[in-house]
């Protein structure tokens, strides 16, 4: 068994005649937190869509815990232990906070929506949802309709939905986008707590979040991973300085 949660092997993706991902390679060891950074249009979201099965890859391979997932559907990848959040908040606004979490737990267990009527009897799902509610700090908002939460609370709920199924590999797409400084500081703490012992891969533009959370940073430029290293080494990497910010290394000050 490999020590990697996720491996990208010469992954390529074309849309029509345009090759967007051009031989991406990446190895994410189990239990580490990785950030993917890069200029706008570099292919970060596309990589997420390939890893989570939303798009099929054109060539190469993606391994989850040592097994190829290249031909799997998104829900099959999810049930193999990988869960992702989206850049756009992806919650059911008319359900309560608790119902959103319970729904995510049941979905991960393979229940269908039509089972909702009989949910109270499903004790494990109920307990798991209560547990996640506590972890994301929304216990006192348990029975509030999700659409009435503040934006930061909605993003916290979304993180809860992402981890609710118990996946070991978590993908977060710009988890602090649109947040104030204090909200994103709180989000960093939340992400750190709920991903303890798990593997995290996140796309993030806010460098203070990236440098505050990531064990390693992968830099994507024109559909390739041009460097993957510790935050300190990325800061001093000349190739990254040249390609990424016109001669300046990414630092916590760059948003
Ligand atoms: N479904 C699609 N069809 C055609 N082109 C696409 C599709 N999805 C993405 N692209 C193109 O792929 C390139 C990379 O887009 P992507 O969204 O992955 O970049 P990104 O690094 O996430 O950018 P940003 O930081 O701005 O979110 C862009 O040129 C985009 O127009």
Q: How would you characterize this protein structure?
A:
This protein is an alpha/beta fold and 255 residues long. It has a domain at 1-81 and 205-247: Rossmann fold (3-Layer(aba) Sandwich). It is built from nine helices and ten strands. It has helices at 44-51, 74-79, 97-109, 123-135, 151-163, 181-194, 207-213, 231-235, 238-244, and strands spanning 4-15, 18-29, 33-37, 59-64, 67-68, 82-84, 169-173, 199-203, 216-221, 224-229. Strands 6-7-8-3-9-10 form a six-stranded mixed β-sheet, with helices on both faces. A four-stranded antiparallel β-sheet has the order 2-1-4-5, with helices on one face. Strand 4 and strand 5 (67-68) form a beta hairpin. Helix 3 (97-109) crosses helix 4. The radius of gyration is 18 Å and the shape is globular. It starts with a strand and ends in an 11-residue tail after the last helix. Residues 15, 20, 38, 40-46 line the site of adenosine-5'-triphosphate. This is ABC transporter ATP-binding protein. Residues 6-247 form the ABC transporter domain. InterPro entries: AAA+_ATPase, ABC_AA/LPS_Transport, ABC_transporter-like_ATP-bd, BCA_ABC_TP_C, P-loop_NTPase.
């Amino acid at each position: 068994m490999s020590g990697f949660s996720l491996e990208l092997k010469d992954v390529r993706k074309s849309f029509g005649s345009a090759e967007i991902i051009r031989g991406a390679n990446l190895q994410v060891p189990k239990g580490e937190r990785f950030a993917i950074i890069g200029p706008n249009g570099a292919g970060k979201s596309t990589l997420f869509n390939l890893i989570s099965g939303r798009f099929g890859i054109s060539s190469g391979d993606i391994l989850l815990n040592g097994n190829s997932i290249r031909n799997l559907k998104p829900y099959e990848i999810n049930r193999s232990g990988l869960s992702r959040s989206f850049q756009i908040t992806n919650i059911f606004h008319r359900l309560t906070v608790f119902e959103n979490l319970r729904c995510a737990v049941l979905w991960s267990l393979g229940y269908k929506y039509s089972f909702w009527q009989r949910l109270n009897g499903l004790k494990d799902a109920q307990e798991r949802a209560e547990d996640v509610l506590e972890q994301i700090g929304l216990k006192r908002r348990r029975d509030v309709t999700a659409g009435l939460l503040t934006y930061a609370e909605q993003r916290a709920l979304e993180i809860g939905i992402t981890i609710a199924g118990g996946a070991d590999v978590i993908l977060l797409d710009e988890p602090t986008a649109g947040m104030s400084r204090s909200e994103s500081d709180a989000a960093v703490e939340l992400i750190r707590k709920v991903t303890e012992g798990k593997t995290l891969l996140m796309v993030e533009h806010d460098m203070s979040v990236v440098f505050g959370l990531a064990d390693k940073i992968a830099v994507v430029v024109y559909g390739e991973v041009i460097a993957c290293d510790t935050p300190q080494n990325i800061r001093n990497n000349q190739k990254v300085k040249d390609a990424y910010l016109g001669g300046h290394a990414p630092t916590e000050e760059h948003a």
